[in-house]
Amino acid sequence: METTLRDLEREASWQLQRLSRIRPSQDMMPEGITPSEMLALKIASDFLERGEIPRPGVLASHMHVTKPALSQTLRSLEEKGLVLRQRDKRDSRSVLLEVTELGRAKLAEADAMRTEDAHRLVEYIGVQDMAYLVALLDKVATFMEARGAVAGGEGPCEVEPAEAGGRPRAQGEA
Question: How many helices (H) and strands (E) would you count in the chain?
Answer without folding.
Answer: 6, 4
